[in-house]
Amino acid sequence: MARGDGRLTHDLYPGEKAPQDECGVFGVWAPGEEVAKLTYFGLYALQHRGQESAGIATSDGHSILVYKDMGLVSQVFDESSLTSLRGHLAIGHTRYSTTGGSTWENAQPTLGGSDRGTVALAHNGNLINSAELRDLVDQQLDGRAARGELARGNTSDTALVTALLSENPDKPLEETALEVLPKLRGAFCFVFMDEHTLYAARDPYGVRPLALGRLERGWVVASETAALQTIGASVVREVEPGELIAIDEYGLRSHKFAEPTPKGCVFEYVYLARPDAVIRGRVVHEARVEMGRALAREHPVDADLVIGVPESGVPAATGYAQESGIPFGQGFVKNAYVGRTFIQPSQTLRQLGIRLKLNALEHAVKGKRLVVVDDSVVRGNTQRAQIRMLREAGAAEVHVRISSPPVKWPCFYGIDFATRAELIANGLGVEEICASIGADTLGYISEDGMIAATAQPKSQLCSACFSGDYPIALPEDGRIGKHVLETLPIELRTGHDTSVDLAERDRRQDAEGVSIGVSGGAENSLLHP
């Protein structure tokens, strides 16, 4: 398949990088069903979790076929490609890169194999001991050249796990998985398969969501319950933290490979998950509405209209309006056809602040005192552009309310935030941020208010991006970050030593034009002020 050559840009404010959704995974075991099409529609429902690449692997009991490419699900697959993917079980993936750059080589599912059979794997999350796992794979190879994905230049943590699962020809995959999974540190939800069996596994902390569903003639697993409902599957339960599930002709088997220590990501409730998703019994939409209510209690203001920034700010804006008694209205018009584009705006268009995604609804906001509710502030550029639009449309006052606390720390568990040095809340206080983005007032929800809205115990949530309290200890040697595997010697992947000096690594870039040198990205973000 052809590789994507364009660079992805973002929609409202070109060059601005909002918190990026991690990935979506889907798996189905259903003899007699069109599993490739079920997977396609499941991935469509998970498209919000990753828009860089998409892929599907299927098995007919004899061989595994993988079809993947850069782009959205609808861009990668058509009727012909889905028809060619025959079988009774399938897995699928939509990607946003958190380890390894946005390249065709890093698209998933990844593929590996041994004398016992083939392994295909899709991953949502991010491992924090990737460098250690690379060393483990190196030891396992014992001087032999790497095969499969690693040999073809895959620099993702997913390829390392695939290699570990497929390099032991003396044991069944299920047994190998129970040995490999306890060695992984970080956040992971895996769906993987051999020619006969579908597997699903979730890390002991349950950082990312993973749900199990039932079809009339089979089983389904997916990152979010909405994907199960999209294909007509009933929701059975969540895959438990520390659980490995195997599904084949003999039924469903469950193994516990680690003691569960729940630390679900609170940002799933704030921004990442679909509003109709249910996570640990809490409907995400309800959590977001309650965050808006809490915002109104914590940061009241006299105003004429409450508006939300589409899409994730709208439920919180609804809650703010309900609690405050201020009318809720539409202040922005969203271009429904803009998600991500491969076309780079010219410098002139950048300077004009091109509005690809949103425009202010002038007749609704002119002369009004507005409460504008959004889900988060990262660099502040997006909010600055929004406020400029509203003022140009005639808004009398703009009061910004944010349904999450100030983001001050990078995420190493599957969300690609900016580095600490780029996060506006690390350099400025609330009043200074307010002045910087041009708002009349600015209010963030408290951490306690946000957590209460999720209806989850605080002890069972990860809020590291707000507090800096990382529940899964980070590597002391500092070998961590999106491009950690690309900035280390790559003889493992190629079979010969092609390592480069540090200065050379600093100059290298991935397909997004982002430096993958040891001084860039999140690798040293904990050292930044």
How would a crystallographer describe the biggest sheet? 7 strands, antiparallel
In what order do the strands lie side by side in the largest sheet? 3-2-4-1-10-9-11
Number of strands: 23
Rounded radius of gyration (Å): 23 Å
Euclidean distance between termini CA atoms: 44 Å
Keywords: 4Fe-4S, Glutamine amidotransferase, Glycosyltransferase, Iron, Iron-sulfur, Magnesium, Metal-binding, Purine biosynthesis, Transferase
Binding site for Mg(2+): 312, 374-375
Function: Catalyzes the formation of phosphoribosylamine from phosphoribosylpyrophosphate (PRPP) and glutamine.
Enzyme class: transferase
Give your account of this protein's structure.
- This protein is an alpha+beta fold and 529 residues long.
- The protein has a 7-stranded antiparallel β-sheet with strand order 3-2-4-1-10-9-11. A 6-stranded antiparallel β-sheet has the order 5-6-7-8-12-13.
- The longest helix has 15 residues, at 284-298.
- The chain is elongated, with a radius of gyration of 23 Å.
- It starts with 22 loop residues before the first strand and ends in a 22-residue tail after the last helix.
- Mean pLDDT is 84; it is low at 1-17 and 490-529.
- It comes from Flexivirga oryzae.
- It catalyses: 5-phospho-beta-D-ribosylamine + L-glutamate + diphosphate = 5-phospho-alpha-D-ribose 1-diphosphate + L-glutamine + H2O.
- [4Fe-4S] cluster binds at residues 265, 411, 462, 465.
- In the C-terminal section; belongs to the purine/pyrimidine phosphoribosyltransferase family.
